[in-house]
Amino acid sequence: VVSQVSAGGAFARVVTRRLGLGILLLCIITALSFVLVSLTPGDAAHTILGDFADPGTYQALRHSLGLDEPVYVQWAAWAEKAVQGDLGRSLLNSEPVTHAINARLPVTFSLIAGALLVTLAVGIPLGVFGAVRGGLASRIVDGLTLIAFSLPTFWIGAVLIAIFAVKLRWFPATGYVSPTESPLAWLFGLVLPVVALALHSVAVIAKQTREAMLDALSSEHIRMAWATGISPTSIYYRHALRNAAMRLVTIVGLLVVGLMGGTVLVEAVFALPGLGGLAVSATSAHDLPMIQGVVVYFTAVVVVVNLAIDLAYTWLDPRVRTS
Amino acid sequence: MPLIVEMSFTWLGVKRCLLALFIGMASVASTACLGGPASQTQSAKPVLRIGLPLPPTSLDPAKDSNAGLFKDISYTSIIHINPDGTFGPALATSWKYLDSPKGPNREFEFTLRSDAKFSNGEPVTAQAAAGWLTYFAGAHGYFAIQMGPDPVFEATSSDTVQIHLQVPHPNIPRLLAEVDNWGWVAAPQAVANPDLFALNTYGAGPYMLDGSRSVSNDHYTFVPNPYYFDPAGIKFSEVDVKIIGVPSTLLQAMQADQIDVAIGDASTAASASAAGLTINSAPVATQSLFIADWNGSLVKPFGDQRVRQAMNYAVDRKAIVDGLLGQYGHVTSEVASVDSMDPQYTSYYTYDPDKARSLLGAAGYPDGFSFSIVDTGAGQALGDNLWQAVAKYFDAVGIHMEIKVDPPQDWQSDILSKNYAAFPYSSGIQPVFIIWPPISPGGGLNPFNNSDPQMNQFYSAGLASSAPSDQWKPMYGRMTEQGYFIPLLTYDYLYYIDKKVDGVVVSDKRVAFAFPQEWSPK
Question: Residue A52: which of B218, B249, B445 has the nearest Cβ?
Answer without folding.
Answer: B445
